[in-house]
Specification:
The protein is mainly α. Helices cover 82% and strands 1% of the residues. The chain has a two-stranded antiparallel ribbon with strand order 1-2. The radius of gyration is 23 Å and the shape is globular. The two termini are 35 Å apart.
Length: 498
């Protein structure tokens, strides 16, 4: 299979996941104006903190079995073997999720006292009730984990996106009803999430039942655990790097600043959409492509094109984010006016996600060679760098320091994984081309920050449209790529001709 045909297959699957995620996140994104125009910064800060803990605990609830299941399920060619892998993993997560949620509910009082500062306890919010709701959300989300993985493993992106879309629609409708109509307050967000998670669990039951058997195969469980547990610290570290900034920001500053930082950091979802779509398609792709003779050439090109796509997203939103957040939706702006000052962190969060995309590309060697033992050290280094940067930067430059700390963390992870991955499975990435692209992006970003461009939308549009021309001028594109573009344009012209 040729390099470009392989890459086309990857990006076709990524496109399906991407379109579905855009639809999903578009609805979720519409909740940002609802929240930022309804709740004060301190209330939104509480919501941000509680959901930060939910993100961390979501990783604990799966304890690496999701990663292990995905590998063993794909590589097992027999229906009986696949059913055994699914049932063993599903039953294990069912039992542990029940136990963990019961512990959280029982210990809700001490947890509320330990996790939240006196400043938060003084607010008119029911923290123990939110913890109970969070335990329910965690349980139902963990029980839909395996059926979603089944759809990914069987390369059924349309079904995958359909159920994800349903989940978000239900969540969105419940938020509107509970917050706008019933005036439930910040607790309404958690009730809405619990309802959507529970209904998604019920709707996906047929997917689970197709593969479920009343079995628990100990040898399979030990294999899953041995492969998956080393991923737990790394996956937990990634979760921490997306959440610990808010927790430490509240400790070093205030819950109001967390409320300001949280919605703006969430604007990074525009970059996260693309990277998540790529991640969903990437693992099945490189597992199947690694058997090809030209696999390393394919992986080299994939990395270049992923970085190119990331750069386009980065340039666009860096130029237009201030205009985007001021867009009106009915009586609301896309982001409440009191939150506009926080948009300065959006390009920084985008940069962090670009380093995360690089990290995902570099994971090939560790995955193929079953050297997951390195991951805890790599991601642990990222977390340590993140925490150190948070404590150094937040007292100096405030919430902007929290965003830069995330960049530092992902940079450390990507660099460490590159060094290890090159020893296990060397790939000659196109660093010369990527350097040219980086310099062009840096120049356009700097120009976009000048008052002349920042105040004129038309000039910013021109600057964005100049990007591909600038890449052409620095000879970023190869002769084979230009030929492919000419062939595509030629075919398009022929189709349009009468």
């Amino acid at each position: 299979m040729s390099i470009f045909i392989s890459i086309k297959r990857l990006f076709q699957h990524s496109a399906v996941y991407g379109i579905g995620h855009i639809l999903n996140r578009l609805i979720t994104f519409l909740l940002i104006p609802l929240y930022s125009n309804t709740f004060a910064k301190d209330e939104l800060g509480v919501y941000t903190l509680v959901f930060s803990y939910i993100v961390i605990l979501t990783v604990v609830y799966s304890y690496g079995l999701d990663t292990a299941f995905f590998r063993f399920y794909i590589l097992d060619d027999t229906p009986a073997g696949r059913n055994r892998v699914f049932s063993t993993a599903y039953n294990s997560i069912l039992l542990t999720s029940l136990f963990l949620s019961a512990v959280i509910i029982f210990a809700r009082g001490p947890l509320a006292a330990r996790l939240f500062s006196p400043e938060i306890h003084a607010l008119p919010v029911d923290l123990p009730w939110m913890i109970i709701l969070s335990a329910g959300i965690l349980f139902f989300d963990s029980m839909t984990l395996m059926p979603f993985l089944i759809l990914r493993a069987e390369e059924k992106p349309v079904q995958f996106i359909f159920f994800k879309f349903l989940n978000v629609v239900i969540n969105f409708v419940c938020n509107i009803v509970l917050i706008v109509n019933l005036k439930m307050g910040i607790e309404g967000i958690f009730v809405a999430n619990l309802i959507s998670s529970a209904l998604t669990f019920l709707l996906m039951a047929p997917v689970s039942l197709r593969h479920f058997k009343f079995i628990f195969h100990w040898p399979t469980f030990r294999e899953l655990l041995a492969f998956g547990i080393p991923y737990l610290p790394s996956t937990l570290s990634v979760g921490l790097m997306d959440t610990i900034d808010k927790i430490i920001l509240e400790r070093l500053d205030s819950v109001q600043v967390v409320g300001l930082y949280g919605p703006n950091a969430k604007m990074g979802m525009f970059m996260a959409l693309f990277i998540t779509a790529f991640r969903f398609a990437w693992h099945p792709f490189f597992l199947s492509t690694c058997k090809q003779e030209n696999a390393r050439q394919v992986f080299k090109k994939v990395f270049t094109y992923v970085m190119l796509a990331c750069s386009v997203v980065f340039i666009f939103f860096s130029l237009f984010i201030d205009d985007i957040v001021r867009l009106r939706i009915g009586n609301f702006s896309l982001l409440g006016q009191e939150y506009w000052e926080g948009t300065v962190v959006v390009p920084i969060i985008f940069l962090a996600y670009i380093f995360y995309a690089a990290y995902l590309n570099f994971i090939i060697g560790i995955y193929l060679e079953k050297k997951t033992k390195y991951l805890p050290f790599i991601t642990g280094a990222g977390v340590l760098g993140n925490v150190a940067a948070l404590y150094l930067l937040i007292p100096t430059i405030g919430f902007v320091g929290a965003a830069w700390a995330r960049v530092i963390a992902y940079m450390i992870m990507a660099a460490a994984l590159y060094v290890v991955g090159q020893r296990l499975y060397p790939v000659q990435y196109e660093w010369g081309r990527l350097l040219k692209m980086t310099l062009v992006v840096a120049a356009l970003f700097a120009l976009g920050r000048l008052d002349l461009f920042a105040a004129d939308v038309l000039l910013k549009i021109g600057l964005f449209l100049f990007y591909p021309a600038a890449l052409f001028l620095v000879r970023f594109f190869g002769a084979d790529e230009l030929s492919s573009v000419r062939r595509i344009l030629h075919r398009a012209c022929i189709k349009e001709a009468p």
